[in-house]
Write a structure and sequence with these properties.
Elements lengths: L4 H11 L1 H21 L3 H20 L1 H14 L3 E5 L2 H14 L4 E4 L3 H6 L1 H7 L3 E4 L2 H9 L15 H8 L11 H18 L2 E4 L3 E3 L4 E6 L3 H7 L3 E7 L3 E2 L5 H13 L6 E5 L13 E7 L3 H5 L15 H5 L1 H6 L10 H12 L1 H4 L11 H5 L6 H13 L5 H4 L9 H14 L2 H13 L25 H14 L1
Length: about 475
């Protein structure tokens, strides 16, 4: 059987020692910084509980919160647009830009824009898009997708970045981090001035006040949203929260969970376009709310916890599988544990279900999630759905029916039957004992990276006596 595309990407990732080393060092550093950022375990537990409650309430009442958000945003002068899927969002954004005669846009960091393939859509419409986040800018030069939702170029070291920057009009003289940053800043400064529009993501939307919250460290987000005459913010519908008073709790958790910072360098609170007498800000502000399967996920009580995610990346930082593979091995926008839960629900188990088998169910992601998403339980649930779709989940998981792994389902049924009956279990042990010398040493592909173990020896006479005694009792 030929390897699947996912397996091929895994093989390439495991063989790329340089990228693997860069990712491993970065993840260890982020884990240590997060640990130092939360020295009080009791305080962290209380903060996580409050944050989980805020996000749980928002997702449970998503239609009401979105309706309230739209009313408040429109009262603030923000033009609100709804997009059912990626195609609708791309068409809408291109239409806004073309109507205003925009030929170049500057983009702040936005994973949702990656999700819908916005850059490709803009290029097809004859609109140039320039990434302004340093990591995204590096990957745009390399023509690669992000490897992490917070640190997109985490797999590249400074020598690789310096080599990429040689294609710029004014390349760096060396590979010092300060030199590389200054080179990118000089290149992007003129882009901000000449861009006809700025496009950004959104971290949180506050329904009570119609406020868009965007946090970042480089200032590119603030430049993208204030310098160009048009600002288009695109985000998933799940990013809404109810009250402005809920925001500090989430801001106290997100940066510390992501990078170990007490707070990001910039916290942008955007509440409308430029008003009379104001010196900066866009003349037009558009908010594009993307569904792309999110409403289906929210409709299922068993799986809607997925939408509580605040995109901090802590689950990736602590995931042993992500640490070995990196994000590009997944071949989609959201890698790691949250991607393993979100992508199969959004894209269907037929195309993303294989991700679930890569998880070790070690539980690290669930322990560090700042909003207490039960990621291991959700992954386990989706594994179950992959082999036997049942109930209301069928409508939420597009393509599940074509992904029934009947052989795997049959094996697990047999295992459950044997393991739940003591008599069958003892008979199995006796059989394994008899044939333990014939245990194979290699079963591809399982043993390609694992050592097979022989069944343990048992006292067969004592074992048979125990089975006979239990049979008499039954």
């Amino acid at each position: 059987m030929s390897p699947t595309p996912f397996q091929q990407r895994i093989t390439r990732a495991l063989n790329n020692r340089r990228a693997a080393g860069n990712i491993r060092r970065a993840m260890l550093g982020l884990m240590e910084k997060r640990q130092r950022a939360f020295p009080d375990a009791a305080a962290l537990a209380a903060l996580r509980e409050r944050a989980a409650s805020i996000r749980r309430e928002a997702v449970a009442h998503l239609p009401q919160r979105l309706q309230q958000l739209q009313q408040q945003c429109e009262a603030n002068g923000i033009q609100v647009h709804w997009a059912a899927d990626a195609a609708a969002a791309n068409t809408l954004i291109c239409q806004i830009l073309q109507e205003q005669g925009v030929e170049r846009v500057v983009k702040g960091k936005s994973m949702v824009s990656e999700e819908i393939g916005l850059n490709s859509a803009l290029a097809a419409a004859g609109i140039e898009a320039v990434e302004s986040d340093l990591g995204e800018y590096i990957l745009q030069l390399a023509d690669e997708p992000p490897a992490h939702i917070v640190a997109p170029a985490v797999h590249k070291d400074r020598a690789e970045v310096a080599a990429l920057f040689q294609q710029l009009p004014h390349p760096p003289a060396d590979d010092a981090i300060e030199t590389l940053t200054a080179t990118a800043r000089a290149q992007l400064r003129d882009t901000f001035r000449r861009a006809g529009a700025g496009i950004s993501g959104v971290n949180f939307m506050i329904a009570e006040t119609g406020t868009l919250c965007l946090i970042e460290n480089e200032g590119n987000g603030r430049m993208s949203t204030t310098v160009p005459p048009i600002h288009i913010a695109i985000t998933g519908i799940e990013k809404v929260i109810e009250r402005f008073a809920d925001l500090p709790t989430l801001l106290a958790l997100l940066p510390r969970s992501a990078t170990g910072q007490p707070i990001t360098t910039y916290v942008n609170l955007i509440q409308g376009p430029r008003r009379a007498g104001e010196l900066d800000g866009p003349q037009q502000l558009h908010l594009v709310l993307l569904d792309q399967g999110r409403s289906q996920i929210a409709a299922d009580p068993a799986l809607r916890d997925t939408l509580r995610c605040i995109r901090c990346g802590a689950c990736m930082n602590h995931c042993p599988v992500y640490q070995r593979l990196g994000g590009q091995a997944y071949g989609s926008t959201y890698p790691g544990p949250i991607g393993t839960v979100f992508e199969p629900q959004q894209q269907g188990l037929a195309s993303r279900g294989e991700w679930l088998t890569a998880c070790t169910l070690c539980g690290a992601c669930g322990e560090v999630c700042p909003v207490k998403i039960p990621l291991p339980q959700l992954i386990n649930r989706l594994r179950f759905e992959a082999v036997r779709p049942v109930g209301s989940v069928d409508s939420a998981l597009r393509g599940v029916g074509s992904q029934r792994r009947w052989r795997e389902a049959l094996l697990w049924r047999l295992w459950a039957a044997v393991a739940s009956h003591p008599r069958y279990w003892r008979w199995l042990l006796a059989l394994l004992h008899r044939g333990r010398r014939f245990t194979p040493t290699h079963i591809a592909p399982w043993s390609d990276c694992r050592q097979l173990r022989r069944p343990a020896a048992i006292n067969l006479r004592h074992h048979i006596a125990a089975v006979t005694t239990n049979q008499r009792r039954s």
